[in-house]
Each structure stands twice: as structure tokens, then as C-alpha cells.
């Protein structure tokens, strides 16, 4: 027992005698990997799928790394993703125009092991989680009304709503997911520019998917617009006066019983959406003086 304690103390002493801590900040851009179906594009002649990943876009990271010796270390990073627009639904047909996109606005964290191949090249491998944020859907819809609708609304609102007028709708819906767990892997090259500072470039892979938990419509407005582009009725529908059959909030579940399928139900089957990506990051690192350097004074 005494021998084991001496060995452990000797190991801890050797680690702390080298121990070095560094912080870094980086930014970069990622493209989607292993893209899954996200939406559709519909025209009179055909319908086609759109594929992608919500992990595509600009990202920033702040990392703290603790090296136990000149080869191995542990890394904790916090990051923010400003995702690119992904086409969810696009319709171009007579009387109907729809343009709906979705993009990620997410905070994440990763805990990784770091291995130095030499003084310049290193690798990271670890676990990735999403801490917060949302997938934001932004949609525009223009739907031409029938002549009977135009005549009836003209009379109801006491204003001229000619044939060919349309309902023009803009809305925003925020989607939130369940707690996910993925992995991160990276390989990078670090170049020292002074005793404490260095710059680096790295290739990084995120492997993660997000299961939807709930969503909420946070903005909604429908205007009646004449063929010449002028507004006949403003705020025909709003967030406080949603169209029949439109739910402000929706909960995503793994199964729906027959009794759940009633008008006004806010339950839908859950789906997984992709956040996997492959990116390039550039950044700067500040290295604090190691314990071994202090002991040489």
C-alpha cells in the first residue's frame, strides 16, 4: 500500500512539474457532411429533394488546454455556430410561391484529449454536446385568393380587393432539441511567433445529430396584397390571430395515439436533424509559463 502511494505521488509530481496551460481563440467555416434530406423544391414540372446539414456555417471557439507532459493534454472548448440557410421548402407554381429556409444558431462545448505528434502537429479527439440555441425557420408564402374570396373580403373590409389579390405571409418558428451527444476530431498545425504566442490552422470534424423536442412560432403576419403590390388589409392574420389549424407551439414525441389526432393537436412525430460538419479553423494561442520553467529560475 505504501509503495502504491509513493508511485502515485511520484506520478503526480512529474505531471505538475511539467504542467502547462494555454488558451486559444479561433474562427472558421464548416461545410455540411453526411447531409440528410432537409426539404423539397417543387415546380410545375418536378419535385426534388434538398440535402444538407445545419452544422454548415461560421463558427467561433474559445479553448483552454492543459498539458500533463510534452505529449498529452486535455482540452475544453466553448463554441458558437452561426449556421447557413438551408432550404426547407421552395414552391414555384401558378398562384403559389413559398420560400422557407432554416438555420442554426447554437452554442456547444467539447471535452477532448490532445496528442502532440511533434512541436508543431497535434490532434484532438473528444465528446461534443450542444448547450443551447435553436434552429430558426424563416418562411415567406404568397398565395393568390379565389375571385369569391376577393369579393367577400372586399365587402367585409370595405376596401377594394380586386381579382388576383393574394395572402402574403411571413413567419418565424424556433425549433429546440433534446440534449445530444456527438464527437469531435481535429488535426492541426501550430506555429510559434514568440515565447508565449503561436498561431494555428486546423481541420475539424463534428459528428452530431439533434432530435427535436418542441417548436414555437415567434413571429407571424399575413397581409392581403393587391396585384399592383399595394396592401389592401394589413395584419389579416397575426401571432395572436393564427389561421385555423395553425398551432403556436408543437411538441415532438416518439408515438402519437389515435386520440391525439384531433383538430388543434400540437403533437408531431419527432425527427432527427443533422448537424455534422467538416471545417477549417484559424486562431491564436497564448501559453502560460509551465511549472518546469518556473523551477529553473
Question: Keyphrases for this structure?
Answer:
297 residues, mainly beta, Porin, eight-stranded antiparallel barrel, 3 helices, 17 strands, 11% helix, disordered C terminus
Describe this structure in words.
The protein has 297 residues and is mainly β. It has one domain (19-291): Porin (Beta Barrel), CATH 2.40.160. It has three helices and 17 strands. It has an eight-stranded antiparallel β-barrel with strand order 1-4-5-7-8-10-11-17.
Residue windows where pLDDT falls under 50 for at least 5 positions: 4-18, 293-297
Largest sheet: 8 strands, antiparallel, barrel
Name the structural class.
mainly beta
Helix content: 10-25%
Please state the second-level CATH architecture: Beta Barrel
Number of domains: 1
Mean of the pLDDT scores?
88
Summed up, the helix count is 3
- What is the number of strand segments? 17
- Under CATH at level 1, the class stands as Mainly Beta
Summarize the structure.
This protein is mainly β. 11% of the residues lie in helices and 62% in strands.
Please render the helix and strand layout as text.
Elements (H helix, E strand, L loop, with lengths): L1 H17 L1 E13 L3 E8 L3 E6 L4 E11 L4 E12 L2 E8 L2 E21 L4 E24 L2 H11 L8 E12 L3 E12 L4 E11 L1 E17 L5 E8 L10 E5 L13 E3 L2 E3 L2 E11 L3 H5 L2
Parallel strand pairs: 2-6, 14-15
Antiparallel strand pairs: 1-4, 1-17, 2-3, 4-5, 5-7, 6-7, 7-8, 8-9, 8-10, 9-12, 10-11, 11-17, 12-13, 12-14, 12-16
Pfam family, one: OMP_b-brl
Keywords: Signal
InterPro entries: Beta-barrel_OMP (IPR027385), OMP/PagP_B-barrel (IPR011250)
Amino acid at each position: 500500500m505504501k509503495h502504491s502511494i509513493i508511485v502515485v505521488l511520484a506520478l503526480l509530481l512529474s505531471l505538475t512539474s511539467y504542467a502547462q496551460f494555454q488558451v486559444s481563440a479561433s474562427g472558421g467555416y464548416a461545410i455540411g457532411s453526411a447531409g440528410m434530406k432537409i426539404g423539397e423544391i417543387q415546380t410545375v414540372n418536378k419535385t426534388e429533394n434538398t440535402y444538407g446539414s445545419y452544422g454548415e456555417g461560421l463558427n467561433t471557439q474559445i479553448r483552454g488546454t492543459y498539458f500533463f507532459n510534452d505529449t498529452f493534454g486535455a482540452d475544453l472548448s466553448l463554441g458558437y455556430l452561426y449556421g447557413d440557410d438551408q432550404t426547407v421548402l421552395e414552391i414555384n407554381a401558378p398562384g403559389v410561391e413559398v420560400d422557407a429556409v432554416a438555420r442554426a444558431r447554437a452554442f456547444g462545448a467539447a471535452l477532448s484529449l490532445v496528442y502532440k505528434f511533434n512541436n508543431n502537429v497535434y490532434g484532438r479527439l473528444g465528446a461534443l454536446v450542444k448547450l443551447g440555441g435553436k434552429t430558426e425557420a424563416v418562411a415567406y408564402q404568397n398565395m393568390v385568393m379565389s375571385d369569391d374570396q376577393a369579393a367577400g373580403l372586399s365587402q367585409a373590409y370595405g376596401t377594394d380587393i380586386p381579382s388576383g389579390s393574394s395572402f402574403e405571409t411571413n413567419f418565424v418558428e424556433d425549433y429546440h432539441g433534446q440534449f445530444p451527444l456527438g464527437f469531435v476530431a481535429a488535426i492541426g498545425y501550430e506555429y510559434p511567433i514568440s515565447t508565449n504566442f503561436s498561431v494555428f490552422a486546423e481541420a475539424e470534424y463534428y459528428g452530431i445529430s439533434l432530435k427535436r423536442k418542441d417548436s414555437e412560432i415567434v413571429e407571424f403576419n399575413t397581409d392581403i396584397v393587391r396585384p399592383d403590390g399595394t396592401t389592401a388589409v394589413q395584419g389579416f392574420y397575426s401571432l395572436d390571430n393564427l389561421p385555423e389549424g395553425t398551432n403556436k407551439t408543437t411538441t415532438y414525441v416518439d408515438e402519437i395515439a389515435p386520440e391525439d389526432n384531433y383538430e388543434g393537436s400540437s403533437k408531431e412525430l419527432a425527427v432527427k436533424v443533422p448537424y455534422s460538419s467538416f471545417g477549417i479553423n484559424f486562431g491564436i494561442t497564448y501559453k502560460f509559463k509551465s511549472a518546469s520553467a518556473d523551477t529553473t529560475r
